[in-house]
Amino acid sequence: MASAVSSEGLRNKFKMLGFVGPYVMIGFFVLSSIFNSNLKGWIYLAGVIILLSLTSSLDAIANLGNSGSHNVCRIFGNMLSNTGLSFGILIYCFTFAYLLFPMYQFRQINFQIMIILILLCFMDGTLRRENGCSTAGNIIASVVFGGFFGLVWSLLVYTMNSEMLYHTEYISDKVACSIPSKQKFKCVTSEQI
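and the corresponding structure tokens:
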């Protein structure tokens, strides 16, 4: 009995994480930009807004279908609640591609971030599929569209100003800092002069 209750509680926490995660990610990039006094997070946010606008337009043209009627599908005012595409998967795949290009370009791939984004994407897809929020085809379309637009947006930003991409501030010609070796000093007093 207790195991079933704790299992259901854990499942609900994963649902909450799955549906809140994209908003937390967007908030992280914007707050990071504010704290670091740069435009990187705002450029990321502009890409997300364009992605969501294109996705809404795509839905109007292709009629991808209504998302599930289950209340969990509309939790937190999901921005794409009228489409079959997954808001979370779009954001995670956009972010994955947006971060991967500069990491690859500057040969500084952060595998931990990439793995976490893949796991979040998988978790979101699983939750949406289990709750009838999206079909398998719409989940795949979300992965492809989010990833493709993330790569396009990253390339566009790179051609305009590569300094506005993430993972460019750590690039240096120097491999490591050097610590001076032990030094000996000779003191001369006024009596010796």
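(Above: one complete record from the training split.) Residues 2-192 form one domain.
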